[in-house]
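Minutes, methods subgroup
Present: GH (chair), OT, SY

1. OT presented the first of two proteins processed in the latest run. Sequence and structure tokens recorded below as shown on screen.
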Amino acid sequence: MKIEVLGTGCPKCHKTKENIEAALSESGREAEVVEVKDLKAIAAHGVMLTPAVVIDGEVKMAGKVPSVEQIKALLG
């Protein structure tokens, strides 16, 4: 599984990545977590608001920092 955090590196983006890592740890799952800061790459996903969470190429959430519980739900 590949999880991308789309954003420019703002505090909300960093918090999103921290929450993703916590959700993975708590659920015992593993994934590659990547920060995408390039504006063209972000726009290529059709994302206009950051931070955004992309799981295996699919935008799951954009424009807010998801909680650890919300991320667990997204992971299934």
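2. SY then presented the second protein from the same run.
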Amino acid sequence: MQEFIIHLHSVRDVNEFVALSAPLCAVTLSDGSRSVDGKSFMEIFCLRLSGPITVHAECTEEEFHRFFQESQRFLLL
């Protein structure tokens, strides 16, 4: 499992992130107190979106690299 931290600022961000995570094997998002399916638009809104969100991805190294690159605009720096 590999991970990185993001911030989702809007409904549009959530929608775009779900589209990026959909082809992967398993993506879980966590706000520190809750974990949800990163492919579920509705579940993501159960998280506290005002803070950092940890992305856990279970996929091949190649899939993760592509996913990470496509998720750059959401990264919390």
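Chair's summary of item 2: The chain has a mean pLDDT of 94.
Next meeting: continue with the remaining queue.
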